[in-house]
Each structure stands twice: as C-alpha cells, then as structure tokens.
Design brief:
Layout (H helix, E strand, L loop, with lengths): L1 E2 L5 E8 L5 E8 L7 E3 L4 E2 L3 E7 L2 H6 E8 L3 E7 L2 E6 L3 E9 L10 E6 L2 E3 L6 E4 L6 E6 L4 E7 L5 E5 L6 E2 L6 E9 L2 E9 L1
Parallel strand pairs: 5-11, 12-19
Antiparallel strand pairs: 1-2, 2-3, 4-6, 6-9, 7-10, 8-9, 10-11, 13-14, 14-17, 15-16, 15-18, 18-19
C-alpha cells in the first residue's frame, strides 16, 4: 500500500499473468473527495428531454461532469447551460448517472439510476409482433417486424415476476416455469404491450 498525491492511496495487487511472470495491477482509491450533488428527474419518458443538474460551489462543479451510463437506453447530450446538462432519451430502459472528475480521471462511487418509460401502454398487441407457439411447452418466440423490442417480462397470474430477458427474444427458455397461464409484457421503444400465453 502506498500513499499518492491525490489525497488517497493506491494498492498494488499481484496476479499470475502466465506460468513464468507476475503482473501488477494498480488500483486507485480516492478517499474523502468531495463531489457535487446530482439532481435527476424521476419521471423520464422516451422522446422527452431530461436535465441533470449539479449543485455545489462553482469550483467544485467545475471539476466534475455527469456521465450517463446506459443499460439498454439510447440517450444523448443535446445541450448544456452552466451546470445543467440536458439529455434526450431515445429508447426505454434503465440509465445511471455518475460523476467524472476532469483532472483526476476518476468516477464517483455513487450512481443515480432512473427508469425511462415508453410514452404509452397498450394492451392490444400490434400485428407486427408475433408470439408463438401458444400454448407452448418449453420455448417462446417473439418476432417484431417494425418496433424495436427493449425487453420482455413474464408474470404469473398473481403478478410475481418470473422472467426478464433483454435479448434473444426468438428463444425464450421457459423450462423452469411451472405449467399455467402467464402474462407477457413486451417493452418496445415506443409502447408497452401485454399478452397472455399458456405453458402446457
């Protein structure tokens, strides 16, 4: 363990690089580094702009910038006004906001997470989305020819979540689900759709 000049310390962790040599990974920890406050709206919908605002002293806020990490969300920075950064959410999903220090090149430990929701919910499945087979035994396939599918969720008849899947929608494995009727929720880039299917 060695002190550094950044107000923290670094730890060298050896690991076996191959059968004959050792490498060292430098892991840096910054203790007691003051970060600004982050204000992020709680209600974000697809196609709408949302603003991430930093709060604190000017010197403090000058050192940090927000960094949006996305999990299935397509969001872009479209404007900046002082300490307010405006983004536009293009698709639904979950996003996280961290702070990035300009000079130290470190990220804050705290992540503010928000859910970006579609603009509307429709119970009627469009013709462009095909679900088959129904009833099914062990697999379900979903094909959408027009709308981008972000994720699917499966609920039992009492509303308990049984499965969430973010890719490979043409091969949804149901082998661990008991026989019965389930609600399928399909979250697309524009709307959320619901349907029912039966496992036999």
């Amino acid at each position: 363990v060695v002190d550094d000049d950044l107000g923290g310390y670094a730890v060298e962790i050896p690991h076996l690089a191959d059968a004959f040599a050792l490498e060292y990974i430098l892991v840096r920890y910054i203790d007691g580094l003051e970060i600004p406050g982050i204000s992020v709206p709680t209600d974000i919908q697809v196609g709408e702009d949302f603003t991430v605002t930093l709060t604190g002293t000017p010197d403090l806020m000058t050192s940090w910038i927000p960094e949006v990490t996305t999990f299935g969300v397509d969001a872009e920075l479209i404007a900046r006004d002082g300490w307010a950064y405006t983004y536009r959410a293009k698709t639904a999903g979950t996003l996280g906001v961290k702070l990035h220090h300009n000079s130290l090149q470190v990220l804050s430990d705290t992540t503010v997470t928000r859910t970006v929701t579609p603009n509307s919910v429709a119970d009627e499945m469009p013709l462009s989305i095909k679900i088959y087979p129904n009833p099914t035994e062990n697999n379900l396939s979903i094909i959408s020819t027009e709308l981008q599918i972000i994720n699917i969720s499966i609920y039992d008849i009492v509303g308990a979540t049984k499965l969430i899947q973010y890719s490979d929608f043409q091969n949804i494995d149901l082998i661990n689900l008991p026989k019965g009727t389930y609600v399928l929720q399909i979250q697309t880039s524009k709307q959320v759709f619901h349907s029912k299917f039966t496992k036999i």
